[in-house]
Design a protein that fits this description.
Layout (H helix, E strand, L loop, with lengths): L1 H11 L15 E12 L23 E10 L6 E8 L4 H8 L18 E5 L2 E5 L15 E8 L6 H9 L9 E8 L19 H4 L9 E10 L2 E7 L4 E4 L4 E8 L6 E6 L10 E6 L3 E6 L4 E4 L10 E4 L7 E8 L5 E10 L3
């Protein structure tokens, strides 16, 4: 990367404008959405959720909370999004391409919603799912598609962004924040707990903990200068005071260690005579880091180096800054936390 940047500078000379770092948040950036079970329904009674953790996938009759996760500069007035939902293949694309009418979603929400409907409006919304009879795992079920459409400025309401999104040509979306996620219910064996085939499932598979979020519960922050090292533990939303020239190293702390062990049931021949296989796996949690100010020598985990430390050198004149850390596992779990930094007063 450094070689490429040097080559570009040689070719461009003084006329080039430096690239802005990808991690620098100047207005608002949508990082994703998250679904959390807040009121378990009757089908969830057989699930053993570890203490202090939150389920990341829902079952029929569960009540969930969905939220969009936005990293924003301090003076950015992010507008609450409008949420759309549907479950058929291509249903969001059909709304984008055809701009059909938009009705309110039925409540509780069934698992078969052929056309996009309006689920609600807000940074966080809560809704309940219908019973198992609405869950059709046939070819038409594509998971629950959730589309959040909001705005990064009060000058453009979220309703205006929604109208521009469904109107062709799709113009004027520069100030809009649009994100889509697909949520798959589970674990599906719990939907029919008294089915005869449940007794054939391995006990290790049935008793495993459900998928939970890798919530960030704190940070270990090290401040280093020469041989001096100061280490503090901070909670999300705390403010850490730093001095110019210090190297800051941040380690996010995840609930229960973050990554979960899990067991998949693989049936090699469907309904054939060969018994299903148990395959053990462990989640991989990746971090994504964003800052609201420019710092020196910044480094953080990336797809090329997921094990990198979050670190930087404090500039000569540090300005107040917020760090957003997103933790995402390779199933349905996601967590987001903020930590603030400020220059130490003389």
């Amino acid at each position: 990367m450094r070689t490429l940047a040097l080559g570009a500078a040689i070719l461009c000379g003084a006329a080039c404008i430096p690239f802005e770092p990808y991690w620098w948040i100047q207005d608002a950036r949508l990082l994703g959405t998250r679904m959390t079970v807040v009121e378990p329904g009757g089908y969830s009674t057989l699930l053993a959720v570890p203490p202090g953790q939150q389920r990341a996938s829902a079952l029929p009759l569960d009540t969930v909370e969905v939220e969009w996760m936005v990293a924003a500069a301090e003076d950015t007035e992010v507008q609450p999004p409008i949420w759309l939902a549907c479950t058929r293949p291509g249903c969001i694309e059909a709304f984008y391409n055809r701009g059909h009418g938009l009705l309110d979603c039925p409540q509780p929400l069934p698992f078969d919603v052929p056309w996009a409907c309006r689920l609600g409006e807000g940074h966080k919304i809560r809704f309940g799912f219908g019973g198992a009879f609405t869950l059709n795992l046939g070819y038409q079920f594509a998971g629950l598609s959730l589309l959040a459409i909001g705005s990064r400025t009060a000058d453009v309401p979220s309703a205006t962004c929604l109208e521009r999104y469904r109107t062709s040509p799709h113009a004027g979306l520069e100030q809009c924040l649009i994100g889509r996620d697909i949520h798959v219910p589970g674990p599906l064996w719990a939907v029919l707990p008294f089915a005869p085939e449940l007794g054939e499932l391995p006990l290790e598979f049935v008793l495993q903990a459900p998928d939970t979020h890798p919530d960030i519960i704190g940070f270990r922050v090290s401040r280093e200068r020469d041989a001096e090292r100061i280490e503090v533990l901070a909670e999300p939303e705390d403010t850490v005071f730093v001095e110019p020239g210090e190297r800051v190293i941040v380690l996010p702390l995840l609930v229960a260690g973050g990554a979960q062990d899990y067991v998949d049931l693989i049936d090699p021949d469907a309904d054939g005579p060969e018994p299903p296989d148990l395959r053990h796996g462990r989640e991989e949690v990746r971090f994504e880091v964003h800052l609201t100010a420019i710092v020196d020598q910044f480094d953080a985990p990336s797809r090329w180096d997921p094990a990198a430390d979050i670190e930087w050198v404090v500039s000569d004149h540090p300005e107040p800054m917020t760090m957003y850390v997103l933790a995402r596992d390779d199933r349905a779990g996601v967590g987001l936390a903020r930590l603030h930094f400020a220059g130490k007063s003389p």
